[in-house]
Amino acid sequence: MDSGTVTCLPDGGHTDLPADVPTWTSTLILKGRNISTLPQGAFTVNGTELGMTTLSLSYNGIQTIEPYAFLGLSRLHLLDLSHNHLETISSRAFHGLLELRSLFLNYSISADAAAQLSGALSAPGLRNLHRLELAGNQLKFIPMERLDLYNLHALVLINNSMENIGSENISSLYQNFQKIADSTFNVNVMCNLI
């Protein structure tokens, strides 16, 4: 029986997304494909919604995430966009990801994209996000206006250039993570302050 995992590694310099992702795919791993833009509905197959739960797009040179790029992936639990070169992130980039629990954006975000990320992370569908990783992006602030709106269990901010976290965010982090700790979850908040 097939595991539901499809892996697409570098293939002769392909710069496009695969157009023939099987509808039974639960995990899609694309690596080293030099994809510059994730367009609207990038993973919709013939208008069919995929049952994918894990999407790994690390190391693809992605520069732009357009509005509704992940349309049709409503069951997605984990999205890894680490080690890309994000310069533009639409405020509606993550629209429709109601089941997303883990978002990895490590070593991916330019200074311009950092300002845009705040809008993208304010999508109502991301309220169930449990883990957000933003390591190594030279961020000067947490790109979320109100941390109390999220269900975060882990926020990874190591190797950034945080200048100010803000007292309201510290309070929200403490309250949210205290609630989680009381529920016997393992809680990690990792950051460097300069």
Automatic annotation (TrEMBL):
Cross-referenced InterPro entries: Dev_Immune_Receptor, Leu-rich_rpt, Leu-rich_rpt_typical-subtyp, LRR_dom_sf
PANTHER family for the chain: SLIT RELATED LEUCINE-RICH REPEAT NEURONAL PROTEIN (PTHR24373), TROPHOBLAST GLYCOPROTEIN-LIKE (PTHR24373:SF402)
Species assigned in the record: Fundulus heteroclitus
An annotated GO cellular component: extracellular matrix
Keywords for the protein's UniProt record, in alphabetical order: Leucine-rich repeat, Repeat, Signal
Keyword match Lipoprotein: no
Name of the protein this chain belongs to: Uncharacterized protein
UniProt keyword Signal, yes or no: yes
